[in-house]
Amino acid sequence: MRLSWRKPAPLNWWAAREGQYTTAAPLLGGASITLLGLVITDRATFRWPDPTLLVLGLTALFMVVAVVWGVRSRQYLYSRSDIEAWWGPLSEMSDDLHEELIQDQRRDYAKWSSLARRADFCYSSGLLCLATGSSLALAPPAHTAAPAWRWLAAGTTAGAVVVVLLALVMPYLGNVIRTWQADRHDST
Asked: Which of 86, 88, 108, 173 could bond 76 through an S-S bridge, CB–CB 3.0 to 4.6 Å?
């Protein structure tokens, strides 16, 4: 069986990832660092400054690591046309060289995919931490009258975090429940 070239699916997903790691993650990481500075310098205006600092610190960490993994992953993603630009037309290559280049590209594609998944995990985790930190920062301080709009803003942000977490966790919970039901059914 002859090996074929690997390609990302959808085809332009790598470009979206590249924008995510070279533009969005640095901006969001910078925003979290700015918010960190605000909480550190004015602790009294936040209801829960210490948990807020923890979550915002995690946001910055996740976003920086997402940038590192994302940029590092890009070196392993290249196409057939890139190979032809570097090595010349594939039709003029020996079969052995052609097969070797396909194997190299498939190996490098696997590295790209692995590193990109790590970057995706860090980016998604950073987004969740930023939303959580924002929700904590929006809660009004304990020693002041609690304006309804501020609680609504904090609750809305917290609600979005809960929905996203449930969307991520539900498939796993469903598998656990199905396995438990199957085990229970088999034992009766």
From this structure: 108
CA distance to 7, 44, 50, 90, per residue, from 76 (Å): 12, 48, 40, 20
Q: Tokens at residue 148, please?
A: 């309804």
Phi, psi (rounded to 5 degrees) for 141:
-60, 155
CA distance 158 to 52: 13
pLDDT in tens, 128-186: 899 899 999 988 887 777 678 888 888 888 888 888 877 777 777 777 777 777 777 66
d(CA 144, CA 155): 18
What residue type is assigned to position 65 of the chain? Answer: V
Distance of alpha carbon 151 from alpha carbon 32, whole angstroms: 21
Predicted TM-score (pTM) of the model is 0.78
Q: Where are the domains of the chain?
A: 13-187
Structure tokens that stand for 78 in this block: 């290249």
Residues 147 and 138: their CA atoms lie apart, in Å, by 11
